Backbone:
């Protein structure tokens, strides 16, 4: 990393700080002044500068997305790192802090000269989006009280999170408020942004799949703590029972996010602070019903009235129906076939819900946490909203032709046995608590001469190993390579009853997906839980990056991987909590022919595999030709199940599929690794 690059990265620190006299570039606002060889910022950055500092920046709001595009383009057009540094310096302090960090992160990920650098954790950039204002003040006090011989100041937050345990929903606060889950969500939307001109392979489908998987995982933890699965927010005309009080601050002046009382009713949107036109709840319902009509009619209608069929049985380059629907629901105006007709359902739902407490801005209250990708997952209503969105996709998926025996089987391979091993125990996994320190003083100024740390509690588990034995035929057409797909789901529903295939279908969480070189005869695969294709192995702190500087080798592969794959699911949340008395889960292992799964990648595509299941691969195609969620995205042919209430275990009649009962026990103790 050269000094220009380091200076760019350093500008991720203390976003609320105004540039000092020496750092500031007053020429920026002088009309007609050329900066960095491009058009002058005052004319170019009108949208970006229209969002006041210290206020909410929301990529769910179209005008904010356009502002982000303007700023990202301005940074991306810099012809050298030096010019980028210049532009970033000029803009810092002039535009909204969240917008600034979003655009700077965007450019670090995508600009060829920058993307070998690692991005530090968003937790350190905006600690006030991860810990309540009371903890921030506690940190301030601790810093003030600290003695000269103290090298650092540490303040703990958790494990109670913002819950009181008076409301049932508080039982999963540890999950919703987990720093890794929220930073994953922020990172995912940075990697797959809407309206920023980013064309990613199967973007719409991954929008569906990644969010569906988060819901499956949330439901697993809900069942672990004795809650029912999430109910979709389908009726907008009745109050939402669960309120949310984030206790987080939007800026360094102590401004708080809007909160929602229990039993609030969604209102027509009449605020004027985001440049949005007045907007009625009935418009959301209308968009929803148009999309549902498209699903049932089997086609979408574009701006010119042309029909585009919706089916998942396509040959590339035709897009799968689920991909088109994902784009339509997420409403990227350059990708959605007809955003005027099908609307902006997903994003506007976030906006309307986050304005529920002050829909006409009469109280001058900020939007709620649902308006920001780094905070939305803290709110119970996020899951109800996304269940509603997922329900659209599932409506489509259940009318797709069921998978046939031919599509599901691989007769030359038999999965002989499956087990997980951890701490010398077979098929018994253990969860508990751990802590992780973040340097909050990288993001907020505590006026301290030493690092001010926040110690966050999070769920964790002992690492484990999958032990999978495959028997491959000694003759005949044996695939050279196979894909191993591992899923996990709770075995019992809320009533303690084993679930049918259709009831359990949406609870299967992908645990791993990898390829294996097959040899004839017995193959014994040992695979560590830490290698999972959904997880991101680490969340880097600023200190990590300083202590392990990046090699001066632009494009050093491991760092490029980090930036893109840094959006993976947190490793510490790979397992659901389970119960103290032990909770039964089922592992599902399926082996398929890699020759049918593989995707021809463009030359020079990076071979990243970390977190590819949720985040795709930088500059490459999604690395699995099957529909995302295969084989649980659709029903299997009825004859494959023992009707009328066939179970997933019925599929083990196919040699390439096996299942194993396991138990997850929550110890409520510290897990140290
Ligand atoms: Cu990730 Cu609604 O898409 O938040």
Residues:
């Amino acid at each position: 990393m050269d000094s220009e690059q380091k200076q760019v990265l350093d500008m991720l620190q203390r976003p609320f700080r105004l540039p000092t006299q020496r750092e500031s570039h007053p020429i920026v606002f002088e009309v007609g002044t050329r900066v960095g060889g491009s058009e002058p910022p005052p004319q170019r950055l009108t949208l970006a500068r229209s969002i006041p500092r210290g206020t909410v920046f929301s990529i769910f709001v179209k005008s904010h997305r356009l502002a982000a595009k303007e700023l990202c383009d301005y940074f991306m057009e810099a012809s050298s790192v030096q010019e980028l540094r210049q532009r970033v310096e000029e803009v810092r302090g002039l535009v909204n802090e969240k917008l600034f960090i979003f655009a700077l992160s965007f450019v670090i990920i995508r600009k060829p000269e920058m993307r070998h650098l690692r991005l530090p954790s968003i937790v350190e950039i905006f600690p006030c989006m991860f810990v309540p204002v009371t903890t921030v003040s506690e940190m301030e006090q601790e810093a003030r009280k600290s003695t000269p011989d103290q090298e650092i100041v540490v303040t703990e937050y958790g494990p109670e999170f913002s819950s009181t345990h008076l409301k049932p929903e508080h039982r999963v606060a540890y999950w919703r408020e987990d720093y890794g889950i929220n930073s994953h969500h922020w990172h995912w939307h940075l990697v797959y942004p809407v309206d920023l001109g980013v064309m990613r392979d199967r973007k719409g489908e991954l929008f569906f799949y990644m969010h569906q998987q988060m819901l499956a995982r949330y439901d697993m933890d809900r069942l672990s703590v004795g809650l029912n699965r999430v109910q979709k927010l389908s009726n907008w005309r009745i109050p939402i029972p669960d309120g949310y009080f984030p206790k987080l601050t939007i800026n360094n002046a102590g401004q708080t996010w809007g909160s929602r009382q229990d039993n609030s009713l969604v209102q027509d949107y009449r605020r004027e602070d985001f440049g949005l036109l007045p907007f009625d709840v009935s418009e959301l319902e209308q968009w929803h019903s148009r999309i549902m009509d498209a699903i049932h009619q089997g086609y979408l209608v574009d701006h010119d009235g042309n029909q585009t069929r919706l089916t998942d049985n396509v040959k590339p380059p035709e897009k799968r129906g689920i991909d088109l629907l994902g784009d339509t629901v997420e409403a990227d105006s350059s990708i959605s076939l007809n955003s005027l007709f099908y609307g902006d359902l997903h994003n506007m739902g976030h906006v309307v819900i986050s304005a529920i407490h002050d829909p006409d801005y009469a109280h001058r209250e900020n939007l709620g946490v649902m308006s920001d990708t780094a905070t939305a997952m803290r709110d119970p209503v996020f899951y109800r909203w996304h269940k509603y969105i997922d329900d659209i996709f599932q409506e489509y998926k259940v009318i797709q032709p069921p998978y046939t025996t031919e599509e599901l089987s691989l007769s030359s391979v038999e999965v002989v046995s499956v087990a997980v091993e951890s701490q010398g125990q077979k098929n018994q996994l253990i969860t508990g608590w751990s802590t992780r320190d973040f340097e909050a003083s990288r993001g907020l100024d505590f006026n301290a001469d030493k690092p001010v740390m926040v110690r966050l509690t999070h769920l964790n588990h002992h690492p484990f190993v999958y032990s999978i034995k495959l028997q491959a035929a000694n003759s005949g057409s044996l695939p050279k390579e196979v894909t191993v797909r591992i899923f996990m789901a709770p075995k019992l529903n809320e009533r303690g009853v084993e679930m049918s295939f259709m009831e359990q279908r949406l609870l299967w969480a992908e645990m791993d997906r990898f390829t294996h070189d097959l040899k004839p005869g017995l193959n014994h695969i040992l695979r560590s839980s830490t290698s999972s294709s959904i997880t991101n192995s680490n969340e880097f702190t600023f200190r990590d990056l300083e202590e392990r500087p990046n090699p001066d080798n632009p494009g050093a592969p491991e760092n490029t991987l980090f930036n893109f794959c840094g959006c993976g699911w947190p490793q510490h949340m790979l397992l659901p909590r389970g119960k103290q008395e032990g909770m039964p889960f089922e592992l599902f292992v399926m082996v398929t022919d890699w020759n049918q799964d593989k995707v021809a990648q463009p030359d020079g595509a990076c071979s990243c595999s970390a977190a590819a299941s949720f985040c795709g691969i930088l500059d490459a195609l999604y690395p699995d030709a099957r529909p995302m969620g295969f084989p649980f995205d659709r029903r299997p042919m009825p004859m494959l199940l023992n009707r009328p209430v066939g179970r997933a275990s019925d599929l083990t009649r196919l040699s390439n599929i096996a299942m194993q009962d396991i138990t997850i026990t929550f110890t409520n103790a510290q897990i140290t690794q």
